[in-house]
Amino acid sequence: MKKIVQVLCVVLISVAVMTGLRWYRYVASSDTPYDEVGITLNGYMPGPIRSWGCHKLQERFPRALPPYGCAGPDGRSWA
Description:
Layout: H1 2-29, H2 36-44, H3 47-60
């Protein structure tokens, strides 16, 4: 039983790390702010982390329309 719990913990931690790294790669070095996987992962992030990610994307793509989840009320300005 202890071995099953240990394996489960390792799998869960591995998935969390891989997901976090994929999200960070989208925010910090993506070629476009419209990467579907990145937008989805950003949407699942907690509020402060999502806000930081949107701010980082806005710094990198100042003239682009914001992706879903980073748009203001009008849909054309950054939140």
